[in-house]
Amino acid sequence: MASGDDDDPIIQEIDVYLARSLVEKLYLFQYPVRPASMSYDNAAHLAARIKPKQQKVELEVAMDTMSPNYCRSKGEQIALNVDGTSSEDPSVYSMKMMDKQTFSSIQATTNTSRFAAAVFHKGELHLTPLQGILQMRPSFTYLDKADTKHREREAANEAGDSSQDEAEEDVKQITVRFSRPESEQARQRRIQSYEFLQKKQAEEPWVHLHYHGIKDGRSEHERQYLYCQAMDATENTELVKTPREYLAMLMPPLAEEKVIKPMGPSNVLSMAQLRTLPLGEQVRTLMKNVKVMPFANLMGLLASGTDSTVVLRCIQQVALLVQGNWVVKSDVLYPKNTCSSHSGVPAEVLCRGRDFVMWRFTLERTLMRKEVAAIIKLPPEDVKDFLEQMSVPRLNRGWEFLLPTDHDFIRKHPDVAQRQQMLWLGIQSNFFPKLLNSVRSVCSRRVVFAVAPAHVSGDQRLKAARESARENHALMQRELDSRRPKVSTNTGSSGESSTPVQVKQEPMSDSEEPMDTNGSINGYPDPTSPLSDPHNGHGHGHAFTPELQEFVRSTFRKHYVLCLSEVKRLFNLHLASLPTGHSVYGHVTDRMLQDTILQSQCKQILVPFPPQSNATADEQKVFGLWESGETFDKHRQVLFEIFMKNYRVRRSVIQTRLTQELSDAATKTDVDRLLKECCTSLGGMWYLKGTVPS
């Protein structure tokens, strides 16, 4: 130490005092979006308020509307969007222009024990501990209000009371449930939920304050409290510590620090705090919050230089691969001995239902909520919760998986993709044994993962695909043989078969493709699918059966209007739901299905689609129930004739035409029922169901 004193002599000694007059009252405001040379010291502060417990501060600052940098037309437009033209509601901008802006605070740090405000005066340093450090950022809540006003105007302009939910929601029976006593675990989950914390924050009232400028007399008076008021107090004794002890007091070891979670509404760690956790916990926390994520995005959220192989091992412990993307496991979201916050269903049942939804998404891009709910038999709130976690609703198309298929990941990591495929096969056999028989035919013609090593030549791939196609066809043929009854084929006088036709196995030529998505499996027609065409060389049509007619009649009595592609989809679902060995439809082709529709009191509606329409050929073939024996048939016939002239019409046109054709028989209730049964509303116009442009 002696040698160090010679090289670093003491130049001046400064007395340090601790001021306590403003303890628990002093805040430091930072303006991160504003340069230091452009402060708000001289701006007019119109209002100030604080929530002390949350350390939440809001300031209203006037804007200089006379500045050459202020756009008056934009300011007036913003005020009009926010306040509207009505004088009944209280206005945000009384001058009919945006003449003020609001600053809202967020906490810059959760631990201010090491921060203080210092004042150096006459050789003395006075320190006052800070209660909080707040960053003041512009608040854009006025945009939310303008958006709400816009939606209200759109809803008022749109004719009718129909909405998107009419395509999926029907009248259903109300079930009354009595809540059971809340468990301790359920109570803890409710207390930590976002809604509960938001409610608690909203309950704390604002404390309105009066703002004093920097040159105000009251401000000068308050600044005097930054100096220690007890200069001669006996407790201000000299600090007697060794240099090492004093240094340890100023900078304690990092091991002694405790990580404090932020008191935000969702109690989520920041990225800086997240990276202090072990890698496995980082992956688990990210997947629990995001729920669906591509692997590339996950690597981007982790620290640079993280080994992707280690991350792959971690992600497989907390997530499953669906269409090349990672979806968090159900037991991570619903731990053991917990229950649903909506219905009280145990976690084990929730996990099975959610796993089924994930498994179905490995097979197809879209699901219908009603069909899923009918299979897993869980309350609608829980089913909707499952779907919202991993998909988005599409108009008249059900729920589509949230992300596109990540073929790049499957190509780079074929071993992981194959391992995940085997894992899904195990989940099928363990959790869905009763459903396998009904959906096995669907599963057999789906491709979950397509893995092809990059070093294999094109000829080798083609040869392997052909061999795989033959094997798959043989497996499918055995499955079909087991499902259909072994009966002899009897022919009547007309030469037509009166029993289901057995499918003959045909060899695959070298010129055929290994997979055909139009109703064939590995180059062969799928006997249970209406997607096969009798003119493609594979299928052989025959007379439709009474069972097929009954299916078509019941389907159109339920849906009234369907395009051909939707009829095919519903028919495939019906086939998949049949028990093993009970298929009585035989080989159904597109031609047979259309003929059956036209023989079942239905007619094709020649909707004049625009030339730029992206609808497929099957989507442009629209059929409607023409005669059902009800008096309401006349209403539907008039509606169908209207849509044979234009593919979209207004409600007033439909109302006028019905009045002309049916006189007093067309009431508003009848029009509402007709539109609900046969049409969909979009942008103030009405379309036949299934013809809405995507």
TrEMBL record:
Q: Its encoding gene is what?
A: LOC107693644
What name does this protein carry? Answer: DNA-directed RNA polymerase III subunit RPC5-like
Task: Give a GO biological-process term.
Answer: tRNA transcription by RNA polymerase III
Q: Which Pfam families match?
A: RPC5, RPC5_C
GO cellular component term, pick one: RNA polymerase III complex
**Domain DNA-directed RNA polymerase III subunit RPC5 C-terminal positions:** 452-693
Record's compositionally biased regions (Low complexity): 488-499
Q: Which domain of life is it from?
A: Eukaryota
Question: PANTHER family from the entry?
Answer: DNA-DIRECTED RNA POLYMERASE III SUBUNIT RPC5, DNA-DIRECTED RNA POLYMERASES III 80 KDA POLYPEPTIDE RNA POLYMERASE III SUBUNIT 5
Q: Where is this region: Disordered?
A: 148-185, 476-542
